[in-house]
Write a structure and sequence with these properties.
100 residues; mainly alpha; 3 helices; single chain
Amino acid sequence: LSIWQSQVATGMLFCLFNGASTLSWNILDLLTTEMFPTTIRSFVMGFLSSLGRISAAVAQLQFSAYGAATSLPICATSLALAALASLALPNLSHTGLADL
């Protein structure tokens, strides 16, 4: 059996993916609070929440259609690209909310 055909390895990779996904959503919630003005913050949070739900549904279809051997590398690559894209965000750590 290769590592991709092992149920234990697949389960461990799913746990790792879920942990990374949960961590990234928490970070996104924190960034959203700082990135958007109060007047549109609730709209943006609702939009991102609905986008996440749609993405979760599409991910389930992808996993069932292609299996773990194809889907996990695609998801890992997507998460890595998102992490790199987050480096392009402006640093607002010492900016007051009134300045936004």
